[in-house]
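Support request, please re-run this one:
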Amino acid sequence: MPKPGPRTTYKYSEEFKSTAVRLSHLPDVTVHDVAESLSIHPFMLSRWRKQVRDGGIMAKNVKVHFPR
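Re-run finished. Output below.
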């Protein structure tokens, strides 16, 4: 049963998101491993990866590049 009261939501910086995405693209590293190590839900990281592909997440005014 969920706890009563307002839900806690977190805001992550663009730098945090882009770093997480970069980590998830390292060889032999899974989205699940990165998400677990950063204490975030794997779906959230997958959503950030999509946002990077679509150009929605930028870090220090530089687009985050990802391997294809």
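The two ends are 42 Å apart (CA to CA). The mean pLDDT is 83.
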